[in-house]
Sequence to fold (369 residues):
Amino acid sequence: MNGEGRAGTLRQGAQAALPIVLGYLSIGFAAGVVQRASGLSVAEVMLMSLLLYAGSAQFVVAGLIAAASHAQLPVLAIVATVFLVNLRHVLLSAALAPHFTSVSAGRNALLGLQLTDETFVVAWTALVRGALPQRGRAAWMAGLNLSAYFSWAAANLAGALASGLVADARASGFDFALPAMFAALLVLQFTAPQSTSPEAAGQQAAQRARMRGMLVVALIAAALAVGIALLIPGQWNILLATLVAATLALVLDKAWTSARTS
Amino acid sequence: MDIRPDILIIIIGSALVTAIPRIAPMVLLSRIALPAWLRAWLGAVPVAILAALLASELLVPGGRIAGPSGYPALLAILPVLVITALTRSLMGAVIAGMLTISLLRAL
Fold:
């Protein structure tokens, strides 16, 4: 860090967040509008933005609240669904952990608290490139996190305040931002580049098998979600479909692997 | 400041169940490794959730099979898929989807 100190690395982290900030400003604005459209007040939107701070989960909560009858919100189903939606952070956090061993537990907790898919990708890329020396790594990550966090909150606020001006959410297509984002994220799951390694060529077959497995999981989950929605009232379909599909994927993968090796 | 009690519970509950998976591995996992089967299971979760969410949004909005008012969404999802695959731009895809559905609804 050439003696620039913690403030310097904090600023570098904040600068590294620029692409995330641009993305968050627009998606966050849409999230603010969608959350207001689902019946949440501006205060509720902001509380959710600051405490939950998870893009897809905030869309999910808005969608579930909008779908529910307002007399009786399925609180437990919503929280359980959010838990499942955000459970993937375990993987991101676990992947970063070995690179932050020299950071205190308290600071690691704060850094982890603001972990998102996007900040993970940027941090991971910087770590893999060796661009982050041990010293100042935590400050760099804090700069990255705080930029992303506050741009998301600002965008949520702007969207929540502007939702009254967006006369008809349907006509502007804002209500479609949610399914569109899910669809785009789903495609990105299949196109996301794995961490590049020298033996990448040898991994192509494994990669193709993984893609096939993911496609099967996606189809099972989609079919189950639709089927369960029609059979069981309430918002349990996403949770049940995901649990069953992920477990089936594990079983199928085991069966597939043992069939190939035998 | 209007914050309804049940919404407050949803927000705090959601924040807690989100914070724990974010924090716990950063703090603990420098020492313990997840078993392979659990990693594989967690790895399948994002795809499963996204597919489940998308299918219910498009096919059974509000718990009922989509009627004619849901057809524009079914069509508008196609440019979203194509543009994401070609450009990998989340924003570009979302904007294209919103423009497409606005046009389809205006027809």
User: Anything to note?
Assistant: Residues 35 and 88 of chain B are 32 Å apart (CA to CA). The mean pLDDT of chain B is 87.
